[in-house]
Write a structure and sequence with these properties.
five-stranded antiparallel sheet, 20% strand, 548 residues, alpha+beta, Vanillyl-alcohol Oxidase, Chain A, domain 3, homodimer, Uridine Diphospho-n-acetylenolpyruvylglucosamine Reductase, domain 3, eight-stranded antiparallel sheet, 20 helices, GMP Synthetase, Chain A, domain 3, disordered N terminus
């Protein structure tokens, strides 16, 4: 069993199932609003998963073993099942039903950049498709091991690329692609530094995955998105190595770095990245605020951001998400203890909850907090104190665990996200919510749709949607596809980006021409052809299928 | 005479020669240190400039006229001479000697994006090379109208692309590529907004030029470099249009925007850009500081930047630049009035001058100024009060005017720039200075080399060098090339970027493989081939000549 196998249960999130801890009242509410029958829908047992024979030929296997040794070419049943999917809703539906038909033919674990380079050469020779695999947390089909016309496909497990080199004076760290969030933080924090990147997938996702997908973390309003933290990248491609210069600022033509960042494994393998780091904060202040409405809260968030007074974490739930979060929060949680009477008095009954947080030196946090709070108050915000903040901090990575529990309860739960400018934000929010409610309602599975803002920019913000509906038994994928397509079409029609931080993967690829234009897609294809002439790198991802 | 002809004198900077206002003592110092003979070296008269016949065929001319009308296809002598060069030192040497051999065959002025698109189609058909021309302020050969195997070459004058659309709520403005800095600011400031982008070329350079070259302005530490201000771009290429989505944040794959930003006209023509803007500041505070040495000042600047307490403008001259600036400052200037005795007392005799400035709301400026000042003092800085700041503000665009005056006095004066991380900054500074002094000293023309830091990043800073030497009469270009090559080689060897904000143009193209790797160059070529199959766009720029 390789190191990676310790990390994620094969059919869900986390190391082992946590079970549901939803209060009965919340489940009753869901049952009534979604029309649940009370059906329990557990996952199959691992031994019942259907898996095709590995298609790796003896010659192909020998070529791989030649690079990494026999122990690092693993075509065992469990290793293959564990790399057969990411963690999207359709991924989970397929896994839980025992379908690992698209499993890789082997899992190959290179030791370092040079072994990655040699493996890519061997794979191009042997016509083996390559799926770079970090934490396997993609929710957009980014690690689905598609053969796509190739003889076989391997998952390239990057966990052994775990180097760390720190430049304390320049506040940068050069990190191996295979380090998970906690591994990287542990290495940095022992030197008094932090990357400050905490996406919901933090516990399992890797540095390489962050960079390859332009990840944004929960504190990215303050620390910056991953694409803002990347100073330089090193990548191995079938055509050779590319290393971008880690200069703080440059006018040396188009930025190749920005071609590799976000390349999702289709151009090559990002093996290490030089990232900005910060001194580990000595102070962290998180607190809750309430607003009369989502629009009012968004206006307040715009005001703090455009006054250069944004906190490091800024999250604003809309009315539905606020209601849902309160209903599903564990009994006795801080959120429940919020004085509802007080909010009613302030006209915020049925309003929206926001979480704001500051990290840094004590003086700096207090100074910035004071400025933010003044503006929030001027814009109708009511402080709820630190309890909601502490509660959010404790549960910040809980979303995907809750999803597993809801799946057991016959509930479809999926998230999607976008961003747009401030002018169009509320329009986009309305249209995507409507599209989801209509698409799922038409199928007889009425939807609950909530959303939040979680990243502020001077010119706009992100929108992150969560939607729930009763699973259409046996037609889960079709149901999901209908909802997803309706939401994506609505996002594009409203001028939003097809993804703010989940990336393109397989699921968003059909919308790439809408996102960047047909000619834009062609330019990316031209770059891919130069770096990956045989087309072995992560086939079926990022770029839409070519027109016949 | 087209609108553009009003703007820049044909053989130098600005609308008309300003002449020298150097104090006698400064000129004596230069004379002694550079070994000047007192020779006066004026420019030739415009009527004595040698110019080849336009090579535009009747068919080509007809195709161009067909798109823009006869009045907008100008092959007059003056129009062609005025678009025959940028404003690099070798450009000025050639112009001043009466050499316009590389003039474009015509100057064509499209009205809008659609006319640009039609022109590119016509030029591809007729085998006409196209040089997009904005303010013509390139100092790296970026607008040199090279034929490069094509039948003829036109300068595409973009001044008429002057549209302005403001989204006040999102703090963005969509600006036509042809607007000059002052034109854009006038349009924005009338609405209470500013772009805050003030490069030394501000008076003449255009929005399109800023974007195409990743320009950085004097206040970019605070407002951000142009590449940080660009939200979206629209470009016309020979293969069609590309418009990148103006989303505040996106994870939709590699960023095409970052392929177009910095593309220097070789992929197509940027016709408009959506840029972040800010409320016009109500308060501006600029002041001078003194440090015992360049290294001490750099440490202080690193401290303010890494404490998130950087001012909006932060400039630190090294010892030589400080001495040179004082010697050449107009008699009676504020800089001269600095109490030298006081500085001697503080151990700063022969030290370094810094200019720091804050812009914004009064309260915000005072709050930030107080934090910055505390850290500067803790790091050995001595405040010189507001006079040096006001003096710098008055003369912030004077450099290129002074260059013309020095050229008249037989002095070669050239600038070049780079950036690197904080750890390597002083090493890089030393090596580039040494390389210039050795290269010019070996030719019997001893050099004065000064430098300053003008842009701070958490992980590093820019370095901007100015060097002066006696002109090698008749061998000015060879002399320049030797110095330039020595400096560029030193920059690359020390790990710096070949350019922080001047761009690649023709002059830096040979160093592109050192900057981005051979494979990186090949990827850019692949993108160019897709967008500009005939290779008509700005030939000879950005990418090095292909190996035989």
């Amino acid at each position: 069993m390789s190191a990676g196998d310790r990390r994620m249960r094969w059919d869900g999130w986390g190391e082992r199932p946590r079970g549901s801890s939803f209060p009965e009242s919340g489940l009753r509410m869901l049952g009534a609003e979604l029309g649940l029958s009370g059906r329990h829908t557990p996952s199959v047992a691992l031994e019942d998963v259907g898996l095709a024979q590995s298609r790796l030929t003896d010659a192909a296997r020998a070529a791989l073993v030649d690079v990494v040794g026999a122990r690092r070419v693993d075509d065992s049943r469990e290793a293959r099942i564990r790399r057969s999917a990411g963690r999207s809703y359709p991924d989970l539906i397929r896994l839980r039903s025992g379908d690992a038909a698209v499993a890789p033919d082997a899992v190959v674990s290179p030791a370092d950049h040079d072994e990655v380079a040699e493996l890519l050469e061997a794979c191009a020779d042997q016509r083996i498709a390559v799926v770079p695999f970090g934490g396997g947390t993609s929710v957009v089909g980014g690690v689905e091991p598609l053969h796509d016309g190739f003889d076989s496909v391997i998952a390239l497990d990057l966990r052994r690329l775990d180097s760390v080199a720190v430049d304390h004076r320049s506040l940068t760290a050069t990190l191996g692609a295979g380090l998970t969030g906690p591994q990287a933080e542990a290495r940095l924090q022992s030197r008094g530094l932090t990357l400050g990147h905490f996406p919901q997938s933090y516990e399992f996702a890797t540095i390489g995955g962050y960079v390859a997908t332009r990840s944004a973390g929960q504190a990215s309003t303050g620390y910056g998105r991953m694409d803002e933290l990347v100073v330089g990248v090193r990548a191995s491609t079938p055509a050779g190595d590319i290393e971008t210069k880690a200069a703080p600022g440059t006018a040396a033509g188009p930025q190749l770095r920005e071609l590799l960042v976000g390349s999702e494994g289709v151009l090559g393998v990002i093996t290490e990245a030089t990232l900005k780091v910060r001194p580990l904060p000595s102070e962290r202040r998180y607190e809750g605020w309430s607003f009369a409405s989502f629009a009012a809260g968004a206006d307040a968030f715009r005001a703090i951001e455009q006054s250069h007074a944004a906190p490091d974490v800024a999250r604003l739930s809309d009315e539905q998400e606020t209601r849902l979060a309160m209903a599903l929060a564990s009994s006795g949680s801080a959120t429940e203890r919020i004085g509802k009477a007080y909010l009613k008095l302030r006209g915020h009954e049925g309003g929206c909850i926001a979480i704001v947080g500051w990290e840094g030196e004590v003086d700096d946090v207090e100074r910035r907090r004071s400025v933010t709070r003044t503006i929030l108050r001027e814009n109708g915000g009511v402080s709820l104190g630190s309890r909601p903040g502490q509660s959010w901090l404790r549960s910040r990575y809980e979303g995907p665990y809750q999803r597993d529990a809801l799946l057991d309860h016959d509930v479809m739960v999926e998230t999607l996200e976008t961003s747009t400018n401030w002018t169009d934000l509320m329009m986009l929010w309305g249209r995507v919510g409507d599209a989801l409610r209509v698409a799922l309602g038409e199928r007889g599975t009425p939807a609950l749709v909530g959303a939040h803002i979680s990243h502020l920019y001077p010119n706009g913000a992100s929108l992150y949607f969560t939607f729930l509906a009763r699973r259409e038994s046996g037609a889960e994928i079709e149901q999901w596809r209908a909802a997803k397509a309706a939401a994506c079409d609505a996002i594009i029609a409203a001028g939003g980006t097809i993804t703010h931080h989940h990336a393109i993967g397989r699921d968003h690829a059909p919308w790439m021409p809408d996102e960047v234009g047909e000619l834009g897609v062609e330019v990316l294809r031209a770059a891919k052809r130069r770096l990956d002439p045989a087309g072995i790198m992560n086939p079926g991802k990022l770029l839409p299928d070519e027109e016949g």
